[in-house]
Amino acid sequence: MGSSVSCCFSPGESPKLRRRHVDLDECPITTTEDVSEDTGTYLQHISDRELPDELAQEANPSDHPRASTLFLNKSQTDVREKRKSNYMNHMSPGLLTKKYSSCSTIFIDDSTVSQPNLKSTIRCVALAIYYHIKNRDSNRSLDIFDEKKHPLSREKVPDDYSVVDPEHKLIYRFIRTLFSSAQLTAECAIVTLVYLERLLTYAEMDICPSNWKRIVLGAILLASKVWDDQAVWNVDYCQILKDITVEDMNEMERHFLELLQFNINVPASVYAKYYFDLRSLADDNNLSFPLEPLSNKRAQKLEAISRLCEDKYKDLSKSAMRRSMSADNMIGIKNSQAVLS
User: Fold this and answer.
1) CA–CA distance, 327 with 9 (Å, rounded to integer)
2) Average pLDDT over residues 60-82
3) Rounded to whole angstroms, how far apart are CA atoms 276 and 69?
C-alpha cells in the first residue's frame, strides 16, 4: 500500500518468519503504463517476483537449503575459543591420531551422504544438541516437554534438573540407546536433528536441561515413522523406556506434529546440508569419521560400481545424441518444406 509492498516469501512456512516491508525499488512491479497495446496483458516471470537474497537468508534452516543450520552457528563461539587456546599453547590436537594414505595403504571414508556412519553420525547429532543446550538464548519451554511434569522414569527427578546442562556423553548415550534398541539408521539421526531445529524455530522455544530428553525422544519418534519403511510403534518405545505410558507418547507426538504445523517434509537439499554441516562440526571438534584401509574386495566393488556408472553415462549420452539428431532432422525437413512452398 502506498509506496511499499508487504510481502511474505513463504506463507506456509515457519511462523517465526515475520512480514517485512520491501521498497518497490527492490521488488519492481510492472504497471499497465509500461505495457504497450501491441503486447497485451503482461505477466511477470517468476524470477522477476523473487525476493532479494537477504530475505532468503532469514528463512528457517530446516526448510531452506541456503539458510545456515542453527547448531553450526551456536558452536562457532566454542570453536573459536578452542582454536585460540590451541594457538596460544602451540597445540595441534587430532593430527597425530589422524590416518593418512601411503603408497602401500589407502584409507577411505565409508561414510557418505546416502549411507552415513551410524556411530559417528549419532555422536555428531549429540554434539549439535549439546551446543544447542549450552549456548541457548533463554529457557523458553512447554509443559508437554517438561521432564518433571512428564517423567520418563520412576526415579525422582533431581531438584537441579532444570539448571545443570547435560554433558555430551550423556546425550550421546541417551540417543545411542534408543537407536540401538529400535534398530534405527544413521539417516534417521540426521532427520531427527532437522525436526528438532524445526520445532525450536516454529514453536519459538529453547532446548534446555528440563526438556531436552523429551524433545529428542519426540523428534526420534517422528523421524523413525517418516524415514524408515518399517516404523517403530509408540508401544515399542514403551518397551525401551519402561516407565513411560503409550498415552504419554501419543500426546507428545500429537503436540510435536501440531507445533511443526504438520510439516514433516525434508527436501534432499536440506538433508544434504545437515549432513555436511555435521561433518564440519566433527572436524571443528576433532571428531573424525572412521577411516578404513582399502581391501582388495572393497577395491573390486568400487571398480565395478565405477564401470556401472560409466556405462549408464554412455547410454544417457547416446540417447541424448539421438534426440538431438532427430530434432535437427525435423528442423531440416520443415525448412525444406518451407522452401518448396
Assistant:
1) 39
2) 86
3) 10
